[in-house]
Amino acid sequence: MKEIFQSGQDSATLTMEADSLIQNPKKRKLNEEQGIDGNYKCFGNLHEVFLRHILSFLPIKDAVRTSVLSRRWEFLWTSNPNLNFGEPMPAKRTLLMNFVERVLYLRDSPDIKEFVLDFDVQSDACRVKSWITAAVRRNVQILNIRLWDLRGQFSLPRCVFTCDTLTSFFLDMRCILKVPPLICFSNLKVLSIENVTFSDDYTTQQLLSGLPVLESLYFKKCRWGCRKVLSISAPKLRYLNIIEDDMQNPSDCQFMIFGATLKVFVYTGELFNEYCLCDSLSLESVDIEAACDVEWPSDERARQVAYRIFKVLIAIPNVKDLKLYGNAYEALAHAAELLPKMPIFNNLWYLKLGSLDLECAALLKILQNSPCLETLKILQIDPISDREKADIILDPMPSCFLSHLTRIKVYSYDGKNDLYAVKILLKKAIALDEMVICFEESLEENLEMQDYLYKQLIKLPKGSHNCEIVFK
After folding, report:
1. What percent of the chain has pLDDT over 90?
2. Residue 457 counted as domain residue
């Protein structure tokens, strides 16, 4: 997010300078016929439409500064469609607040394309609400509100929830969200809600029911209270991203996600909630990061996580792109009875793993049930505990290793615990065309060690005569 006051600069100077420009528009102008480099006259002769377009890319403080260039530039900034107001130093808070209100008052354009407000509200809730209302009344299209230090109750202006020009709405504030009875975002395509607490089922369902054209939905570190069931249903929803981080107050809610048009589902969290992907046959890409502790607090909790991951997997048989991070597949080992029920992923061609454990029965089952897998990417490789049983690793052999798996990419390779696993992959993936090895960051400048690892790897036996080992 661009901010009106950038780090390393004196925010007081910037605020007072922009403020003084608005208060005194008759400050001395540079002669528009005198270009410092001889090119200013040509630049100044551009059509006003182009000049306004150029100014639209500048932070509002810089756009205001251009008013000193010449009489022609004096009020060009007042039509800037993008208004970005960031938090100043506490001592200059009043100056910024006055600056925001003057910018909104002096605008000569009826429309605002993007309104960004990153502000420490404190006891000025009424003024902050008036700014947001002003943006809505000027047909704002992108509304990005990040509010901090909310003292007491705070509710957004009602007009926000019926703004028919709004296409993207980003809301980040640590408070209980209160919504009016009437909600209709008739043109809203992107909605992102962060750090908000949903107080009751009615509030949440009211919000999610007024999104007829929504395409992308983000819930980041929200709190769901004591609700037991939450339904997410938007007729045109294509992308859903849920990030949870509430270890101190974990909820146990069942999310019913109806996604007839849903293409991408991304989840990061502790899986304190259950996710049911209903009518999700169109899902093409799923990204699950189960950020769970390696040492489970109890067997019951471990099995709960396993069942919740399994519930997601059985709902996505048509997935093409699957990413499993954290303990997303390792957790299934705590509910071995689920493995025989694992679905067949006939369309899966790309699989990315946070870690590769070739001794994990759950991973073996996923590979065996992915007959058309073409690309396997591995962020790190777990050491093999019993090398004497290497012959039974990947047994029975996944069919994709014999026919479709043509590319494997290994990240963070150091040649220690991961060499033996790479050896097994090279030997058993007989359809392999390429294995890409990316060295660990600590080896980037150690050319001697890289050369040693290179010579070590190219000597390994390969199941595929066409396989090339590429080092990056």
Report:
1. 43
2. yes
- Number of separate domains in the chain: 2
pLDDT of 361-388, one tens digit each?
999 999 999 999 999 999 999 888 766 6
- Give the domain extent around 456: 344-472
Structural domain contains residue 434: yes
CA–CA distances in Å: residue 280 to residues 94, 225, 304, 309, 465: 51, 27, 22, 15, 40
> For residue 32, what are its two tokens?
């528009």
**Two tokens, residue 400:** 């994709």
| 251 domain residue, yes or no | no
Identify the top-confidence range among 104-113, 241-250, 364-373, 384-393.
364-373
Residue 351 lies in a domain: yes
Instruction: Mark which of 56, 83, 110 sits at the end of a domain.
Output: 83
What amino acid is encoded at 302 in this protein?
Answer: A
Which residue, 413, 469, 467, is CA-closest to 438? 413
CA distance 100 to 86: 10
Three-state SS for 148?
Answer: strand
